[in-house]
């Protein structure tokens, strides 16, 4: 049987599925579900929740944001990974980054999830509070090397990587969760620095997530709604042929396009394969209705985002686990 994926990723309110959750998840236009901290208690509960979701829709992509540092939804019973910016100051930074990628992916896969939206490829320009320590570095070359090592670790564990937030959120000071950030730099300036990690790693990334940032010297709209950014530059110039996920279309940075129905239509028209509508079930319903009216076809390529064989639950006894944890402890990056 061919696996079909819808174009909408949404969320649920609690730690178990309600009848209403089951109803909406059965809609073929829904292709994924993302968990937040409110959905998570401990590893056993997450495994049971994932199993109940797959009982309704075995084909759904199940995601989480598990970057490390302050963006880490899985906490109780999971390794508290450092913020990625803390790695660069170590002599063995690339090895530590690979350990972090493997540990993160292993734990996420072990509870039945497919992917974490990671790594962050934004550069730390010392301007954006929302990026800050989530970035590997401000230097494009070093950030690329460390992110590449993190991706190698993810790949070894069986998880596909998603680079975010294309073409770079590190210069714009506003937080796209609550405002509409603007980056006034020229395309040449962005190419010279912020695009470097995306360009160098384009063949290692299975997916990319664009930023809700407006770059007015390139396009009047946010990158996630821009064919110039997604088709001409990401696909054409950088040669990226993987999946494009929108960032959360409920964020303030996406509201310039209109309501949720308009936003998901604009994101898909620009080149996104799947739109995320989170923390607002009414908006998710609007987006779903738009996909049903438009008769959007299932996007191609999403199957590559499935976890490649879920990790065993006894992963903490594996030699690689013990080695990775020992290295991070020696660098005083985890407890």
**Gap between N and C termini:** 46 Å
Strand content: 5-15%
Helical stretch tally: 10
Q: Into which percent range does the helicity of residues fall?
A: 25-40%
Largest sheet: 8 strands, parallel
Mean pLDDT: 93
Give the name of the CATH superfamily. Answer: Glycoside hydrolase, family 3, N-terminal domain
CATH topological fold name: TIM Barrel
Structural class: alpha/beta
Strand tally is: 10
Low-confidence stretches: none
**What is the CATH class name?**
Alpha Beta
Report the order of strands and helices: EHEHEEEHEHEHHEHEHEHH
Question: Under the CATH scheme, which architecture would be assigned?
Answer: Alpha-Beta Barrel
Radius of gyration: 19 Å
């Amino acid at each position: 049987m061919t696996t079909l994926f819808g174009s909408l990723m949404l969320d649920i309110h609690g730690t178990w599925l309600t009848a209403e959750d089951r109803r909406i998840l059965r809609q073929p236009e829904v292709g994924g579900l993302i968990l937040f901290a409110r959905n998570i208690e401990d590893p056993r509960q997450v495994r049971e929740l994932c199993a109940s979701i797959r009982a309704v829709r075995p084909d759904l992509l199940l995601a989480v944001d598990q970057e490390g540092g302050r963006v880490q939804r899985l906490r109780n019973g999971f390794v508290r990974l450092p913020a990625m910016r803390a790695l660069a100051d170590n002599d063995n930074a690339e090895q530590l980054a690979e350990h972090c990628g493997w540990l993160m992916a292993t734990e996420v896969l072990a509870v039945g999830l497919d992917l974490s939206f990671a790594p962050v490829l934004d550069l730390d320009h010392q301007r954006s509070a929302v990026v800050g320590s989530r970035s590997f570095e401000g230097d494009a070359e070093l950030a690329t090397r460390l992110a590449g090592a993190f991706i190698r670790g993810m790949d070894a564990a069986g998880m596909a990587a998603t680079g975010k937030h294309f073409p770079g959120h590190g210069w714009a000071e506003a937080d796209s969760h609550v405002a509409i950030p603007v980056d006034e730099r020229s395309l040449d300036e962005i190419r010279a620095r912020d695009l470097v990690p995306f360009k160098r790693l384009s063949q290692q990334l299975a997916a990319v997530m664009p930023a809700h940032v407006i770059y007015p010297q390139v396009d009047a709209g946010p990158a996630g709604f821009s064919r110039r950014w997604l088709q001409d530059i990401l696909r054409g110039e950088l040669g990226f042929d993987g999946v494009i996920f929108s960032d959360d279309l409920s964020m303030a940075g996406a509201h310039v396009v209109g309501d949720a129905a308009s936003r998901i239509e604009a994101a898909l028209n620009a080149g996104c394969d799947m739109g995320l509508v989170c923390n607002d079930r009414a908006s998710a319903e609007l987006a779903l209705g738009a996909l049903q009216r438009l008769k959007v076809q299932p996007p191609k390529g999403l199957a590559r985002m499935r976890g490649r064989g879920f990790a065993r639950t006894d992963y903490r006894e594996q030699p690689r686990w013990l080695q990775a944890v020992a290295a991070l402890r020696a660098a005083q990056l985890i407890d």
